[in-house]
Amino acid sequence: MSEKGLLAINPIKFVNMYYTGFMGKDRLKIDYKLTKLLTQNVLYSAYHNVKSISEIADSIGVNINLIREEIEYLEDNGFMEKVADEKYQTNIFISDFSKEVCEKRHSIYSKYATIICDTYIPMIIKEAWNIFQNAVKDSIEKNHEPCIITPQKDLNVLLWSVITFALCKKFQNPEYNESIIKHFVKRCDDSENIYFASIKNDYDLSYDEAQYESNGEMDIAFGPDDVYNLSVWLYNTNFDSRKENFGQILLHKYSFLYDYITGRVLYNNDNHDRFDELLTSGLLLSQKPDNSTQNTPLFNLNTIVSTISKDDFLAILPNVPDEILGLNKKLSEEIYEISKSQYPSHKQDLCYEICRNCIESNDIKTRILGSLLTNGILKPLNDIQKKTVNTIMFCENL
Q1: Helices and strands of the chain, counted as H and E runs
Q2: Fewer beta carbons within 10 Å, N or C terminal of the chain?
Q3: How large is the average pLDDT for residues 378-392?
């Protein structure tokens, strides 16, 4: 690992960066900072061994004055810690697996993903079909918008989102979550979380590693004074084409979308920039006018909207069978045994906790989605669908 990190010759680069925990007001600023190549190499330099500022500068081949403020910022925000003798230690969770370990992890995750695809996924699909049919039937009988609005009434889009939502929520283990919370880092903007990153390596693998990258899920909860009672769930993977990171997913965008679909706002010169934002993100699509005299632009909704609450929606979906939950222990033990040697001593406890519930990991969820796509159970998404897949907006009424 000593050959990596020379900024001018062989700099390391973070990929698959995400948080677990609670975000703060400086999320955008921190996200920007951590995308800088200099910042990433400073962090990697002091990850496996504690180093002084001069040692960090020497290891990445830069002038010491170039990184003083960098390290001060990282220390202030909890990404680095000052330890004995004026030395620093990186305090994020970086995965830097050897080629052999990558291949073994992929094989293990793929094996268990296949089992889940054969047992649990058919149960989700059956319920998703019932939700879709009942929503359409209820809409026709009562002459109102269905309780689930699916773009273009495309069942495949609904399946992508419902399956992923179930994988994210039904595999959660409260006991596991409590053990992870103990490792949260409190930052100066009042956020508390763990920051994760992986190292982009240049060796060739037998599979496309980028396909299984994910920066995880996000639940956007609106404040207690929100008159609409909105919430939004998202899960970002490389199966979608969203370019914005979670720090850029702003609450006002969804409240304005809700205002539009409920008729509270119409397009005009004063709010065209708000509509442009929704069009750019793919939440709305331009609709061709019915006639040449129509001056006001019309738009089609391009994300799933549910008037079934998030909790009720989750309750409809089938619970994970005991046989699958029983496999979690085997999966977690196998992953931990081959992964623990890849982390430094100060991250061994966190490595153990993370590997206790591997069935909840992004690694298994993305491989399940990949397997379903390969086997034709999920169909390929077009460019429009990729912008908003695995997004559900929950609201009280339409």
Answers
A1: 15, 13
A2: N
A3: 96
